[in-house]
Amino acid sequence: MSATSVPAGSPLANKQYSKALAAMAVRAPTPLTALTGPMPTHDQAMRKLRQQTTVEMPVVRVDELSKGPGDVVQVDCAHVIKLRAVMGDRNAEGLGATLKHSSQDIRIDMATLPVSAGGKMTQQRTPHSMRTNALMQLKGGMPRFRWQRAHVMLAGARGRQDGTDWIVPQASDPEFAEQMINPVKAPTYNRHWVVNAAGLTQGGAQLGSVVTTDTLKLSHIDEFAAIWSEMPVRMAPIQIPGDPAAGDDPIKGILLLDELAWNDLLTDTTANNNLRTFEQNAIKRASYGELRKHPLFSGDTLMWRNILLKKVQTSIRFNASDAVPHVTAGNRLTATETNVTVAAGLSTTHQVSRLVFLGAQALALASGANQTSEETYSLLENRTNFQRNLEFAGEIIGSEQKLRWALPNEAGDLEPTDFGVAVIDCVVRKRNG
Known about the structure:
The chain is an alpha+beta fold. It has a domain at 186-362 and 407-429. It contains 9 helices and 19 strands. A hairpin with a 5-residue loop joins strand 17 and strand 18. The longest helix is centred in the first third of the chain and has 26 residues, at 130-155. It is globular. Residues 1-13, 39-53 and 370-374 have low confidence and may be disordered. It holds the Pfam family Phage_capsid_3.
């Protein structure tokens, strides 16, 4: 069947609508918007050369490819080196600490989200503008698609949730890997914890032994805060623009919880749980400088032990007897993945919920140019069936990838490390079948 295509530069690819879509999509209130730092305006020459946003926030936007062709961008990480002083008149020449760095390549691709506007008679019967309707549908759908890909990347798994709001398919879908573009990697051993009674057990192997009472409590936030402070390969705290206390009293990071884990935390009745206290902590920190204007402090936000707790709509969950990729203690230096089977004792009544903790430099968000404008998002339109049927599509060029480097651990070995992201698995009670 013959079909009409839309070549590059065609007037059908409405540039005004593409710019409107790009503006709306970039500013849409998804977690990506709040977690991304601003583009530096001066200094930091290397980041400026790479068109890279500030590295003090969880999401680092890399727009190097938005200025020209290509499908791979390189992100660099400078290791924190161990310095040693040379005292007095001793010769210091040749004793300098060696600078080390790691690099990571991120591939980008184009994703298209089509919307059908029907045939000529369908358009005749409605007074609404099909182009405007398509624009509004894609305004919400395209940022949601990007956030879901980012959430899956950060969590290191897609999980079982698959409601109508999910655009990214499950991992069993043959198109999953293609839509994710870059490989989804299980959490590194040194960035994975599982709730185990009153404590946290490092590594995903504990998923095979979870029970229905391994729910999230405030004491687990206390434990993770202590773990964070003693990590051999420390996670960098975030520095929110406009926070005057970032140097003296840094925010360790942001813990993203789904609705069920959030509910368990709020309804925890153990002695140390004081909801009003950590609500007031967030309000107090938001009063510093310009923080009250930052989207991270909008909506439901709590703070405890300098960890921001944020509720998110998407959920990464696993059912009883699911096979979940993880890195064992024995494979920590290679990050080789094997499957652990979630404990069958959860039955059909409970699931495992994966919480995502974000420090600085957790995710690279790479964007590329398209054929019709300098924007990453475009609205395309096409007529088929002898010009009687109208179809729209939103186009995104870019990808997401968790930032992972091989960093020296306490033994001096180079260990693959998810630099700015850690996960905590806990049990939640299912509220539906």
